[in-house]
Structure formats: C-alpha cells, structure tokens
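cron nightly-structures :: item 1 of 1
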Amino acid sequence: MSYLLPYFGEINLTQLDEYYEATAASGVKFDLNFEHTSVAEEKADLIKSWLLDIGQLDAQNMGAIQHDFNTGEGETRDYLRFYIEALYEEQLAGIVGDTDSDEEKLVVLLHKLRLKRVGFYPDGKYDTPHFAIFDYTIDVDGKPCNQLLVLKWTAQRQLAEISWES
C-alpha cells in the first residue's frame, strides 16, 4: 500500500525498508526507523501529522529547552556550559560575540541552538520507547557540533526527557 509522507514521498506501508532519510529545505534531516516490514496506516498518519507540525513542534521544543535552562534542573545549562569550557576563545567569540559574563554567553548560546535532525521510531526500532527524537546543536566554525541536546517524545506528544548526547 503506497502512502505519501511529507519530505519522504511515497513509501509502501506493507513492504517497508528498515531506514528512510530526507532533508528539508531548511537543512533539517529526517529519518524513519522501522523494526518491522509493515506498519498500520494509522501509524503512518501519526508520522505524517508530526511532519506537518514540525514548525510547531520545534517551537514547543524550544519552549521546553528554555524552561529547562531557566530552572537549571536539567541538562541544558550543562550542555551550553560545555561550549564555554571546551571551545577556543576565538571559536566562542565567533558564536557569542562580545559578551562579558558566562551567563550572557549561556543565553546567547541558548538562542544559537538549532534543530539538526528528527528521527521517528514508530514501532520501537533499536528498542527505543520514544516515538520521535529531536536533535539540537550549535554550529561551530560554520558546522554543526557533534554534541547534541536531545528531546525525546512519546507518540502522544508528551516530552519524555531532555538529554545531552554526542
């Protein structure tokens, strides 16, 4: 059964490949990861709804990241602090400009975060309990850093966790 997904085009829901990838005009990469060779149309509809709402979901993620940053209880501050501690002064200045305090640098870095990738795991591929995983990064010297701030979501659009991964 052929099914049209935004960014991916036509996929056959009864003869799935294990992995699909696509790239949006904005440069965000998407991937679909399937454990099984078929998926119900309802699950494909769910993926489609997420893809159609990607801008809204990105904004929602940024709100969750901002909240995590403000409370200081999660990974966001440590993730951003990594850049202050690990980058050469010139590299850091290229990102944050002429900021004086570490707090100002953290705030600028927070606003430099960008969505790099969204992975979907609709049937638990790789034993992941998460339906969608959003990877955020900061560009260093014009390239995305391999350090990621990762937001993991359930199929019911509930944020499960924010983690720092590389």
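cron nightly-structures :: done
The chain has one domain: 2-165.
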